[in-house]
Design a protein that fits this description.
This protein is of the alpha+beta class and 137 residues long. The protein contains 5 helices and 6 strands, in the order H-H-E-H-H-E-E-E-E-E-H. The protein is 31% helix and 20% strand. The strands form 2 sheets. It has a 3-stranded antiparallel β-sheet. The protein has a 3-stranded mixed β-sheet with strand order 5-4-6, with no helix packed on it. The radius of gyration is 16 Å and the shape is globular. The chain starts with a helix and ends with a helix. Bound molecules: zinc ion (3 copies). The site of one zinc ion has 7 residues, from helix 5.
């Protein structure tokens, strides 16, 4: 199995202790996290470093950002092999109106969306809102 070090190196990201810690933090989360969640988890770390790490991860398709309509951008790890391409990789997200969590529905890809001639899609964000499985049971 590929280690986190190998994964980062395969994406041309220099491995640092902080990057490994943040990756592990994201990997153990079942829900998307806000930057403030990361800051709270790493209180002693420099906030700029945390922010830059997330930005680096985003640029290299390690994480993707999610606008769930709450006004707070959230981040979640990409699936293995993801390049954050509209046609192949983008999936639905689900935001629970009850507990406020946002999760990736990676099995549910965003359907091909045709835009008029002359328009170029750069990002698509589809968020389903409702009650999550934990809150509905
Ligand atoms: Zn991705
Ligand atoms: Zn819920
Ligand atoms: Zn996602």
């Amino acid at each position: 199995m590929e280690t986190i070090e190998q994964l980062l190196e395969s994406k041309n990201i220099r491995v640092t202790a902080m990057r490994l810690l943040i990756y592990k933090f994201l990997a153990q989360k079942e829900t998307a996290v806000a930057l403030s969640d990361i800051e709270n988890a790493f209180e002693k770390a420099d906030r700029t470093t945390l922010y830059r790490t997330i930005k680096t991860f985003e640029e290299k398709a390690i994480v993707h950002n999610i606008d769930d309509g709450t006004g707070i951008v959230k981040y979640a790890l990409c699936e293995k092999g993801c390049n954050c391409e509209i046609e192949n990789d983008l999936h639905l997200h689900f935001h629970c109106n009850n507990c406020g969590t946002t999760v990736c529905l990676t099995e549910h890809k965003i359907p091909q969306i045709k835009v008029p001639k002359g328009y170029i899609s750069e990002d698509v964000n589809l968020v389903v809102k409702g009650i999550c499985d934990k809150c509905s049971s």
